# Entry
Amino acid sequence: MTPLDAAGALWSLWFISWMAAAAWSTRTVEGQHAGDRLRHVVLMALGAYLLFGYAKASWLRQELLSMPRSLQWAVVALMPAGFTYAWWARVHIGKLWSGRVTIKQRHTIVRTGPYALTRHPIYTGLLVAVAATAMLVGQVQSLLASR
# Structure
């Protein structure tokens, strides 16, 4: 298994578990419009496509960063830290979490736990994993995707 294979497996585990946990949420009172949600999903899919280096254009595949195998594994080790921080926030926010911009029943602002440390801890944790993946791929396209 290569470090990039391990990164892909970690992202897959995170994604499957994250989607399965959507059932924990409280009923949505007001949600994001379908067109806005579609745009969001398309941009996320494009970002993932570029992040993992799937684009074939030569200028996107240009290497920006090359690391020895041992350093690649160290970068992969950052990913579970990011996923764990995002999961801590997700569990802490509990039934108020949503994958869409929504207002939930009994909506409140959470300011404890990881939300006392960072304003958007789920994004923060995922950005750690994205940055690690972009470093691992080391191409122009992965840098573009991480922005």
Remarks:
- The chain has one domain: 3-145.
- The chain has a mean pLDDT of 92.
